Amino acid sequence: MGDIRVGILGIGSMGRHHVRNARSTKGFDLVALADPDGDKFGVAGDLAVLPDVDALIAEGVDAAIVAVPTVFHEEAALKLAEAGVHALVEKPLSFSVESGERIAKAFSDAGLIGAVGYVERCNPALLEMRERIRGGQLGEVYQIITRRQSPFPARIADVGVVKDLATHDVDLAAWVAGSTYETVYAQTAYRSGREHEDMMAASGRFANGVLVNHLVNWLSPYKDRTTIVTGERGALVADTAMGDLTFYENGSFPVEWDQIANFRGVSEGEVTRYALAKREPLAVEHEHFRDAILGVSNEHVSMDEGLTTLRVLEAILESAKTGESVRL
Fold first, then answer.
1. DSSP structure string for 48-96
2. Considering the entire predicted model, what is its pTM?
3. Residue 194 above 80 pLDDT?
4. Using an 8 Å Cβ cutoff, are 6 and 22 in contact?
5. pLDDT the model gives residue 99
6. Edge-to-edge strands of the sheet including 86-90?
7. Is residue 175's pLDDT more than 80?
8. In angstroms, rounded to a whole number, what is the distance separating the alpha carbons of residues 135 and 147?
């Protein structure tokens, strides 16, 4: 087949980056853009900026990237599915589990590729981390910890920190663990005077017994994007803001100072920071979407996976509201 005719709905803070990457993705032909607010960032070039998803579909696109606010995902996605257009929908899949179920079903029933934009799965540090864990470098995995903290982003108005930021960590932790959430307990806070929560602390357990902890907020004056996986042979630490991965190995020599040995449990071994090829994660995400459409791979995040993550997010919000842990 020829190049895939791609359209992008929403060319704002996130959509503009999709435009840049779609233009450079081999096998993509960017033919249409749509945004009711126009071209605020000046990325359209020689393409007209259409008013809505209907006009985008009318351009005869084969695939679309949906980068509008979460509350508009369902309307756009259902129209794309009805028109036979493959879609990559930015995370989270939708604003509620029920809405997400309708979207996932529409694409499944139509036999279309439905992907969700969890770009962290394409981060070089996390890709390398997952491969090393699967290869047995850590031995048995005990715990996964994530931190995702930064100042408040003006681009977000329709959801809180759970569905905007924590959704990345919920997805990537399950992906790295190779399991699903079994239980979750969470607390949230509202410190900035907005309608939605801006801080979250959550802990839980996966079905395979791995413990998990997430710390997320919009009130830190610095950006922190860290994933720590601890196992029987040491810990892998990913700085996903920089794409760096470091291995902290358990020491092979016993600690001879009893007080420290009793406190630490394991001794400190070699520390290795890996040299990684660092490609832009969004470019990798576009290639996964393309390859899924072409039927040559299934490395994209499916809508069923996005729906599973959405269920965990709602369990987190329910736990924060009730003060009780939630079993999934």
1. -EESSHHHHHHTT-SEEEE-S-GGGHHHHHHHHHHTT-EEEEESSS-SS
2. 0.92
3. yes
4. yes
5. 98
6. 49-50, 28-34, 4-9, 63-66, 86-90, 114-117
7. yes
8. 25
